[in-house]
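pasting for ref
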Amino acid sequence: MLVVLPFAHRNNRRVFQRALLQQKHAVRWNTQSNTTASSSFTDPVLVWASTNREVAQTCLQRPPEGNVVVQPPTCSQPQPQPPSSSITMSSFEDYWNWRRWDFSTAESGDETFYAQNLTTSVLSDPANIGFLLLPAISISGLSTTRATTGVQRGTIYDDYNSSSSFSDNNKERRSLHLCCLGARSEASLPTEYWKEILLMANETLGWTHVDLTMDFIGPEVVARPRPVRHSCSLTQGTVTLRWLYRGKFHEFLNKLPEKDLQQYSSDGDDTINTTTGINRTFLCWDAFVLFNPGIGHQNLQDDWKPTLDFLLSTETRRRPLLLTAHSRLDAQRDGMVLTQYLLDKAPLYQKNPWACRITHEDPFDASHMVRSNYCYHVIPY
């Protein structure tokens, strides 16, 4: 039974329902097999949330954007800080403290623990981009180039014209364009949580006036006719979400007319790869994100191969690529696949401080416990 909330709290209800429904969609490969199995495990966080809905919903409320700690906690004599301060951001605890996230409705230490872990279900994906991928983009210089050269960005659908290029003519703004491949639950995360990336970029990299566009492509993406755009007053930035295509990335590219491929080229190179029919340059995106893709799982490996052939081909100029995995086993399988493309260095997945802290049981292996974004690996530019 769902709790009916006032209109003002409808977004919180959506987020709360999303967190509870993640139990069903925790493992990407569940729906790829004809075998049926049921899970007998439910994380205590979800048990608590289902019986304390009002407290859980309140704790999921995003604090005001200006409600941040601008001084390091250890600084006894507060001094003016630049946009990128010396506050250490190495865990959710650091981030909650900096953002002054409100868990006051939790009446005990256990409730606070559960409430905090519940928020990681909506903060994990933005934090992975803000703290793991953006530094790689910063080192590459891709976003700066796009902001200062005024490159004309190609568009696939006329409906997206104004959203994909609205900042390109303003040379004082930083345009950042990401593509999330194989998107699932992350495509339903409310825009307000993606706006946290702008605060992260401001705090750790000193970036302001960032126009961030997130494109979602995947078999479970529900395409929408119009993008959604929100602004962040503190950083003078914007976030635009675009649900581009319900299907596989390589299918999406192969369906594009040649003129769109040329427009989507980052440097105007109209050379077409005759093997794949895909432009040899990396289109318009500054970086790619694959959240828990399962590229090494037996039920998904063949589906991912054409996309990986494009993303990691030696003939294609690379963009930074962030990959996460559900578990060490998942990371090992994915790493074996990546090794086929990155022969010079075997990919080393690391334990992720920005992983979701809600645990799920693999319905096909009761001994295999998984968490969204448990491990990560960044392939630099």
